[in-house]
Amino acid sequence: KTSYFLLLVRHRYVDVSIIFVLLVCRRYVDVSTVDDATSKLIGKRITSTGASFLEAPVSGSKKPAEDGLLIFLTAGDESLYKRVAPLLDVMGKSRFYLGDVGNGAAMKLVVNMVMGSMMVSFAEGLLLSEKVGLDPNTVVEVISQGAINAPMFSLKGPSMVKAAYPTAFPLKHQQKDLRLALALAESVSQPIPTAAAANELYKVAKSLGLADQDFSAVIEALKAEMQSSQH
Where is each 6-phosphogluconate dehydrogenase NADP-binding domain found (predicted)? Predict the structure, then answer.
């Protein structure tokens, strides 16, 4: 066995058998975002060959990745986790070991579910403020100084006011994660009505041709609904 580590981003629909060609290193770290069932399937296939498997989806988009500020949500082989920890520390600001395979994927979906829902609520607030005569830029500033402040609001708000959506996290990926979160919730009979409503708005945004724009472009779906309600 070699001491090399294989770090791959895998598309959800890639044939699992392809992975076996890559197992010469005997250690596999998966940093993609998939549902927990898919992660468990991949882990089972890999460990059945005698190789070790660690899922390590990340929380963070383009800028955090460039700055080495990702958050790794790992689960699976604990000895492999300890071995790759120094590498994860180079790429991220923090890491969590969450136990059994599937827990990392579930945590990522929960985090992105909250993020997607927060963005919809933020977009609603910006549009409402403008509708009642407030300056949406001031709304962003007020929020940034209060208890509900989140870096996402300060980062995305000014661009959203200008109807500009430079892509850091594509809208189509946010909608995919909401869809997977809804499936996860369904599997345990957990209602998540806010996330379900948010998912519908992201689907509308995709239908408007905004799939490759930043997920903050979901505000355009709200604008479209406002316009249609006025006719």
Answer: 28-99
